[in-house]
Amino acid sequence: MVASRDIQVYRRDVHKHGRPLTPKAREELIKPYLPPPPSAPHSRTTKRRKLQPVRAFLKTQLHLLVFTIIHTFFSLYIRLRQTYHAIIDRIFAILYYHHRTPELIQKDVRGLSRLPEHLSVILELRDQDRGVAALEGLVDDVAEISAWCVCVEIPMLSIYERTGILKGYVPTTHRTISSKFHDYFGRRRPSLQIRAPHMPSFLNGDLCEGTHPSPSNNPNHLSILLLSSEDGRSTLVDLTKTLTEMSQRHKLSPTDISLDLIDAEVSESVMGEPDLLVVFGPNVELQGYPPWQLRLTEIFHVQDNTGVGYQIFLRALHRFAKTQMRFGR
Question: Could you tell me if 173 and 167 are in contact, meaning their C-beta atoms sit under 8 angstroms apart?
């Protein structure tokens, strides 16, 4: 405890003899009451502190080495997988090339137990092309797939392209497909109908007022439906708003709204459920495809595939024929 005499001397800043305190004298006055100075740091602590930067450096280098090893093995795996798929695609392209002959295409699917009644595909504009070249490539892919569908007697084909650019070129698409049919079938070209939701359809080059004209009696008839992202979730949102307004105006009872009603409305405004969906891309990216129609659809794609090919189309049909549809209660 600090003595009262020392407190008075420190406060007055003078000795008992009346002389002022010097800085050294003030230090000597409060020195007995200060805690002991800390001991010198131990040699082990100093050594440990010196080793911390070295350990951090070695730890960083170890992490970098592990990352490099994992990245190297993963890159090697990707390269081997791409090479394997490229070789398999080339083998299929050689063994099953159609030569634009319907008889050869029919021969390739002759042993299949079943074929889809409604085939849907997802296409996209080619990144390496721009402007008119990209559109021409997309329309040519549509024409090729259309010809293959007619050869195997698939009556319904829906083409999904996210931006909807094909909807603005329906007459051009119709002419390109008709020209492709001439290359495959000669003068015996099948009838062709192209339509899009909420738009007039083209039947054999003629504009039809109704959005759902009656199908042709010709067994070689092909109906093509053009879809885009606006026909997906936005359609369900608009249908939900319509049903809500009708319910609020007492034109429709909430108990009348069921899955069957929604399914009927969506099928009428857009399309029904396709049997098979082929993704001509390296990954399963639906890109905003109408979700309601995919509940029971078989989805097929090939890893590392980057374009439309007949071998992919044929492999999808073979996979669909082997698929078992098991519906729950």
Answer: no
Residue whose tokens read 């319904």: 156
Task: Classify the phi-psi angles of 295: left when phi > 0, otherwise alpha if psi is within -120 to 50, otherwise beta.
Answer: alpha
Cα–Cα distance, 203 to 47 (Å, whole number): 88
List the beta bridge partners of residue 225.
Answer: 158, 195
pLDDT for residue 121: 94
Flag whether pLDDT at 154 surpasses 90.
Answer: yes
Is residue 276 within 8 A of residue 297, CB to CB? The reply is yes
**String of DSSP letters for 252-320:** S-GGG--HHHHHHHHHHHT----SEEEE-SSS---TT--SGGGSS-EEEE-TT--S--HHHHHHHHHHH
- Bridge partners of 143, per DSSP, are none
In the sheet with 192-195, reading across from the earlier edge strand, the strands are 206-208, 201-203, 192-195, 222-227, 156-161, 118-123, 276-279, 298-301
pLDDT-derived band at 327 (thresholds 50, 70, 90) equals: low
φ, ψ at 219 (rounded to 5°): -65, -20
Q: Which residues contact 209 (CB under 8 A, 6 or more apart)?
A: 200
Out of 109-113, 131-135, 200-204, 238-242, least confident range: 200-204
In this structure, of 59-63, 92-96, 168-172, 231-235, the range with the lowest mean pLDDT score is 231-235
